[in-house]
Design goal:
heterodimer; B: mainly alpha
Chain lengths: ~325, ~300
Amino acid sequence: MIRFLLTRIGLIAPTFFGVTLLTFALVRLVPGDPVELLVGERGIDPARHAMLRAELGLDKPLLVQYGTYINQVLHGDLGQSIVTKTPVLQEFLTLFPATIEISLCAILFALLIGIPVGILAAVRRGSVLDYLAMGFSLIGYSMPIFWWALLLILTFSVNLGWTPVSGRISVFFYFEPVTGFMLIDSLLSGQKGAFSSAVRHLVLPSVALGTIPLAIIARMTRSSMLEVLNEDYIRTARAKGLAPWRIIILHALRNALIPVITVVGLAVGVLFAGAILTETIFAWPGVGKWLVESVRRRDYPVLQGGVLLVATVVMVVNLLVDVLYGLINPRIRHQR
Amino acid sequence: MSIAADHIDTDAAALPNPLVEFWRYFRQNYGAVLGSAIVVIITLIAVLADVIAPHSPNEQYRDALLMPPAWLDGGTWRFVLGTDDIGRDILSRIIYGARVSLSIGFLVVTLALVVGIALGLVAGFSRGALDILVMRSMDVMLALPSLLLAIVIVAILGPSLINAALAVVVVQLPHFARLTRAAVLTERAKDYVVASRVSGAGLLRLMFITVLPNCMAPVIVQGTLGFSTAVLDLAALGFLGLGAQPPTPEWGTMLSNALQFIQRAWWVVTFPGLAILSVVLGFNLMGDGLRDALDPKLKR
C-alpha cells in the first residue's frame, strides 16, 4: 500500500512543477509591462522604473526568475494582489470555504438523487422510468449551467419568491466568520433565523452546480449496476431466495459503487469549472468568482496564485480518490 | 479491425459495406438519429441564416425595446421571440448565433483533432523522452479545470471570439492526444503493423497509412462529443465576457447581461440558452450513437 501511495505521489510531482511553469509563464506572457501594471495608468520616470524592475527581479535571466518563483511558492509565498494588496494565499484561504461549502452541497445533492435514480433505472431496465431517468440525465449532462442557474433564479426567486437571488446570507445578519462555512457559522452565531437564511441562499447554487455531476452519477450508477446485476454471485443470492432489496442494496450496490467513487473524484474538476460560473451568477464570494474578477481587473498575481492553488487542490483530491480506490479495490493496488 | 481484415482474403463478397453496416447499427439508436436530426437542422439554419432570419441580427428597433414574444400580450409577429433591451430581434440573433457557434465549434474541433492526433501519434511512436514530454504536458493541462485553463489562456491573449476559440482548442487537445496515443499503443503491437514494418514501410507510412486509420473510431466519437463541449465552453466564456464581444450574436454573450432583465423579460434569458442546450444535446446524442455503432465490443 505504501509503495502504491509513493508511486501516486511521484506521479503528481512533475505535474505540479508543470503547473508552476504554466503559472510562471502566465505573468510573463500577458501583454504589457509588469511594472506598469503595478503602478497603474499614471506614468513613471525611467530611473524608478528600472529600480522597480530590479526590485521585482525582472532584470535577471528567466531561469533565475523561475528559481526564485519556485522558492517562493514552496515557502507559501504566492505574491500579493495588485488591487487589494493582501497576500494571495490569505485571500484564497478566506474565500475557499465558500467554494467548498457550495461544492460539497452540490455533490451531496448529486449523490442523494443520482445514486437512487441510477439504481432504479438499472433494476427497471427498459421501463418508462429508465427512459425518463436517462433522458433527463442526458439533458442535465448537456446543460449550459450558467443558463440553468438563470432559469432557476427566474422560476424560484423571481416567479415563486421562494429563494433569494444572490449572496450567502441575508444582509440582516452579521457575525464574524469562525469556520468560514456559513451553515456552521450561522448556527454558532445563535441568531434566530440565520441558519434558515443561509440554507435558503445555498439551495439554488447547489442545485445549479450539482446538476451535471448528478447526471454523470446517475448514468454511471446505472451502467455499473447493470454490469454487477449480471454477475454469478447475484444469481446465487437470488437462488438462495434472498429478498430483492437485500440483493440490490447489500450485494450489488457495494460493488457497483466502486466506479462511482472515481466519477465523484473526477467531478472535482467539473465542479470547479462549474463553480466559476455558478459563483459569478449568484454573487457567491468564492474562489471561482475571485478568479474571474482577477482577469477582469488584470490582477495577474491573483490569477497566477489562484490557478496554482486550484490545480494543487484538484491534484490532491484526485490523489485521495486514487488512494481510496486502491483501498476499496485491492486489484488496483496490486497491479504492477 | 484485424478480424475484418482476415475475412477479406477468404470471404470478400459476404462482407457488408462498412458504411451500410454502420448505418444499420446507428439507426437502431433512436436517440442518435434524433441527435443527428437536430444537428442537421441547426446546420441548415446556420447556413441559410441570411435567408431565414427575419431581421438583421444587429438592427436596433428603437420603437420595440424588450418586446415580448408574439404569443404574449403586447407581442407582435414582427418579432416572433421578442426583442432585447436595445430592440434587436432575438430570433434573428439566435439564427445568426447558430452560424457563430457551429463555425467556431467546427474550427475548434478540427484544430484540436489535427494537433491532438499529431501529438498522440508522435508520442505513441517515439516512446522515450519525447513521449514523456508530450504526455506530461498533457497531464499539466488536464490538472486544471477546463474552464479555468481556458480563462488563463484568454487572460494571456485578451478576450475575443478567436482567442476564446484558441483557448478551447488548447483545453481539448489533451483528450485527443491521449486517446490517439492509447490507440496507437494497442495497434502498434499487432501483427499487421509488424508485417508492414517488416516489408519495409517507413515511419510516416506506418504512422499515417497503416496505424492511424485503425485508431480513428474512438477519436471520431471524442470529436463529436468534443463539439458539444466546445460549444458549451465558448458560450461560457462569452457569458463571462471573455469570449465573443458584443454586438456579435453569440449565444453565451447574449446571456451575459440577461440577469438584469430577468424580472422584466424572461424571453431574453430563455431562448438563447435553449439554443445552446439543443445543439449540445444533439451532438451528445449523436456521439453516444456513434460510440455504440463504431465500438465492435458493444456489437452483438
